[in-house]
């Protein structure tokens, strides 16, 4: 109740007269200023609004005929500023978004109990007060505009013609335009034709004419061009001058230079845009709070981490997020901070589901005006990975130090993170001096000719890295090291690299000496290139290397002539070789051919024969070449061709539409299913791209998807395809990167999900009916019950209240079944011990107790698992009686939930999972059906047996444990 005695006239539009009557009773009791007038439809509401003065409209959303959004849109056409509150039992993000777009003042979901009416009354009073404040602000703005008319500048009187010829000009004309007043008054310079910037002329003319047609007054900001060619911004305010007959005879107004202000505004807008981009796109969580700890702003990352919307987070307290903080200690810290001072601390944040995670917090006090509350900006970074890494390093530290070889751990940049004594001895430095230093070994590997192999190891492209390398080591100069590098863990990318190193300088010196001796011996024995041949054009004598004698099966004692050299080839290819040789001798051009020959075991093999002539004084003086067995290469090429043919058959044999998309967003290949489904011919599709068939995504969104394709994972999204006949087909797209004909491309497979979308719409319609048509009458009944309980005390009323509670639970379970679907969308490791405590706290357990004997971590959908355990706990409490003991324990392939209640007879155990079945007065009959659904969604199995104390025991098997 406020001190003001002014009446607040409220129009309440709802198709349920009982509910509007109940709401009016409560609202008028909460605040005596409120007077409620009811209407049972949007049409009746508009009639009431036409005949009566109304301060605020409260409307339901889902009504026969026009809904609440349509009523809002109609009201806004005639009453753009009238407060309008959408008060509905059918709440969703889509409805809220539509309401905001239509100009709703406030949005409130119907709840249970009388508290909802206190909240509604408060929202009504706030909306009416805000509307009155806006009216007063408008009046103050009008007065301020009168004062602005006296700013320095020029005043004028001109005709309302496009050139706007001036009749009278006074004031700072020349300093503003560079022209004298006389030049303008004599029309030597015309304002509209020569001074207004050409790009602004049309806009200025249309703005002034629209204003004259309305109320006759106008104001506008535009550019002018001065006498010396400079561009300036001016602000003009004026109006029409009319004769006694009401005819427009002239314009009068005031013009002033606002160039500096405009430039400041543009700079401020650019700066603000950059800061907003940094705020919203920061990878860290950012929030702003007052000196009372109230959060007044958060960025997108903050919302993502806490899985809450900005609206849900605004108004919460800092200590609701920082679970380790003490409010009094925080206020003491804030009071002691100067503006700009920075404070750092590590603490733990907690999500609404009870999960905690470590963060590093940077707190800074912001500058504020004298009349503003103190504000602080907080930049928080999740350091869970760092903490995990520190624990991992501690586990590896003892392992590394026990190794007998020089061992260490490198970070992702190639610095020593941990070294053992043997590594320190190798480098000749204490361990603490080596740790943190850049490794010369890693630097040499990264700068090597084969690219950054160390990065490949970190990214998971290599399982290990072995080799030998010469690097400078401490004071000893160059040393040859044999190394083996492996990822620290099996993550992608790796957290670090484990290195084991051995100094093999002496061994390498011996090996190099031996290699030099061997190469010297081979060069002495080798008189020509391996597999080489040479032909003397004059004598037609041919020289073969030893390898050719062995390849052709000819004795090394045989003198080779050109005829003999040709005879070794397959009879069908000898002429090919002979022609290639003669052409090379005649033209001086090299040749490269592939021909056949028969090996000593009568196998036909393929040879690549090359010949390069040496030309002197225009004549070929010698012809040299090489012979290479390419049989295996040709065999691989045939296999590759067959593989491509098989892939093509598989591609076209798919039932789903599929295509290959180039990075230029054009189709490279389409399968038969795509041609049949879309109704285009294959040539037509190959001239198109995904943007030509997509009826849902804009071109820019398709480009963003192509650019964001992951290297190794699958990209999955939903969209709508449009056929040549105009039919729209909802599809699920699965895309991955492939190599197609030598270029990187995207393979996309589209599956028709029309049936699935139909099921989703049906479930949404069912949820709408449950939410609106069942919940609304129940709200009315609960309100009436509360009024009745105030007037009399009866055990029958208590029974009615229990019945209402059970009906609410029934509706909640029905909505859970309708909205949660039948598939698990995302799984993660869930540590059951703290998770079970959270679920237990969410259930009204009275004197019941929980014994959590399970300490394992399972993999599952966290939200669905919470529903599973809460329903099992609630079932045990409802059926087990007061003081029931609930136990959760391990199985070899899962877990069990057991109570010591009366249990369930064997002949009734198969019925408990049926929808609507319940043996307790308080039960809804849906809880165990939901449990069975969740188990099935995870691919598990559930079985009901007798517990060790005779109660009910639910065993869930087939569970995947996180390692």
UniProtKB/TrEMBL annotation:
Transmembrane segments: none annotated. One of its GO terms (molecular function) is protein histidine kinase activity. Keywords: Kinase, Phosphoprotein, Transferase. Residues 769-957 form the Histidine kinase domain. Residues 218-270, 343-395, 591-642 form the PAC domain. It is an enzyme of class 2 (transferase). It comes from the Archaea. The modification 4-aspartylphosphate is found at residue 60. Its EC number is 2.7.13.3. Gene3D superfamilies: 1.10.287.130, 2.10.70.100, 3.40.50.2300, Histidine kinase-like ATPase, C-terminal domain, PAS domain. The keyword Phosphoprotein applies. It catalyses: ATP + protein L-histidine = ADP + protein N-phospho-L-histidine. SMART domains: HATPase_c, HisKA, PAC, PAS, REC. Residues 9-125 form the Response regulatory domain. This is histidine kinase. It comes from Halobellus litoreus. The lineage of its organism: Archaea, Methanobacteriati, Methanobacteriota, Stenosarchaea group, Halobacteria.
